[in-house]
Amino acid sequence: MPKTAYYIPVGPIHPALKEPIRVEAEIEGEKVVKVDVKRGFAHRGIEYMGMKRNAIQTLYLSERICGICSISHPYAFVVAAEKALGIEAPPRAQYIRPIIAELERIHSHLLWLGVIAHEMGFDSLLFWIWKGREKVLDILELLTGNRINYSVFMIGGVRRDLKESHIKALKDMITYYWEFTEKMKEIMLSDPVYKARTRGVAQLSKELALKLNVVGPTARAAGLRMDIRQDMPYDAYADIDVRAVVPQDIVGEARGDAYDITMVRIYEIEQSLDIIEYCVDNLPEGKILAIPNYVALLAKIRRTKGEAIGAHEAPRGEVVHYLKFDGRDGPSVWKVIAPSYNNINSWAPLLLGAEVADIPIVVAYIDPCMCCNDRVALLKTPEGKVLGYEYIHKKAVEKTKRIEREVKK
Amino acid sequence: MGKLTNFKRSLWVFHASGGSCNGCDIEIIAALTPRYDAERFGIKLVGSPRHADVLLVTGAIPRDFADKLKRIYEQMPDPKAVIVVGNCGTSGGLFYDSYNLVGPIDEIIPVDVYVPGCPPRPEAIIDAVVKAWLKLEKLEKELEGKKE
Which fold has domain A46-341? Predict the structure, then answer.
C-alpha cells in the first residue's frame, strides 16, 4: 500500500449509519479507490420463523421485517396469499389498502428527504421536514391506531373501516401536503446550495442501473420507467392510471444523481396525494373482509394447496413475496425479496472515485434498509476457514430437508 | 422528579441498533425532532459511546452483534445507564423462536430501564430517558462518595 492510501472502516456501528452494516474504503487523498460492503449483521431468520407459524401470525411477522415499510411487506403477503387461496378482497377493502399504502409512502419519502438533508449537514431542514412528517403519522394513527406497525391488513381485506371523520381528516391532510410539497420544491429543488451539493453526486447512468438491477426511485431517477403499480397493477391501482415518475417528464432529462432522486421523491408524494384523493372520492360501499371468521380462514388455508407470488411497490422499490400453502395453516415456504437488496449493489460503483465528503450522500441516496435485506452471512468457520459454495449448498439442502420434516410433524 | 444535585450536566445518548426493524429507531429520531423536541432538555444523540452517559439499544440482538454490543458498553465512561427500547429487546417479543438471536439484551449487558411497545411512542422513550437520569444521579452520588 503506498504511503498516501488510508484504510477507513465504517460500521457496523457508526453515527452515520442508523443500522448495522460495514463499509470498508481505501482512500487516496480525497478519492475513494477501493470499497467493500459487508452485510448480514441484522439477520433475524424471519422466513424460518414464518414457516413454523400460522398465516395470520406470519402476516404480522412480515410487518416487522421493516418498521418503515410496515405496510409494504404485508401488502405483498396478502396479495400472494389471496392469489394462492383464490379469494378476492371486497371492493371497499381494495380501496382502503392503497390509501394506507400511499400514506406510508408519504411518511417514508419525507423521512428520506429529512435524512438526506442531515447527511448534507443541513440539520434545520431535517427538523422542518420531520415536523411536517408528524401530520401523516397523526392520520395513520387515526386510521389504524398506531404510528408505526399498523396491523391493519388481513388476508382477504382490511381490519378497520374508514369513517366519515377519517375522510374529513384525510382531505385536510391532502391540502396541508400540497402546500408542504410546494415549499419543499422551493427549499430543495430551487435552492442553489442544495443543487450544488447534489448535482452530479451519486450519479447512476441508465445502463449501470439496468446492469445492477436497481429498483424503485433509484431506477426511476436514472430514467427507467418501472413501477409495480404501473406494470402489474393490483387492487384499486388497476382503476387508477398510475404512471412511473421519471425526471425526463419533469425537467426533460434524467441524470440519475442525488438531485434527480430528490425530485422523483417529492413528485411521488404529490402522486400519492392524487391516489389517496381518488380512492377517498370513489370509495365503494360494502363489507371489508372476504372471510370475516379467522378460524374459517385458517381452515381454508389448511385445505389449500398452491403457490403464488405477490408484489407491491414499496417506497424504496418492489417488494416480492413468494408463498406456498401445502396442507398447513401457514405457509410451508415463504420467500421475501426486499428492494434494498438490489439497491445496495449500487454503492460500490458509485463510491469508487467519489470524494470522502460524498460518502454519506451516496450511502443515504438509495434509502438503505438493512433489516429488510440481511440474509445469512456465515461464510467462515470459527477457526477462520472460508466456506466454499459446495459446502454452503450442501448445508442449504440439509436445512430444507430438516424444515420439511418439521413442517410435516 | 425533584432537583438533580449530583448529576449536573446535559444527558448525552448513544444509540446502538441491533437487529431492529427500524420502527423504534425512527421513533427515537422523532423524539428529537420539533414535535417532541427532547433537545430542549439537553438530551442529545452523540457519535461515540465514549462521550455518552446513556446507551439506547433497540431491537433483538443477532449472534453476530452481541460481542460488538458488549464492546460498546465497556467503552462508555462511568456512571452509565442502559435503556432497551422495544419489545424484541426486552423479551424477544415476536422473534422469540429465531435461530440467530441471542436472547433478551439483559443477558448480554446490564439493563436499567425497559421500554415495552412495538414500537413505543416517543413520549415513552423520553420518559425512559428521564428515569435513566434519576439512576445516573444515584450512581454519581455513589461515585462521589467513593472519591472522598
Answer: Cytochrome-c3 Hydrogenase; chain B (1.10.645)
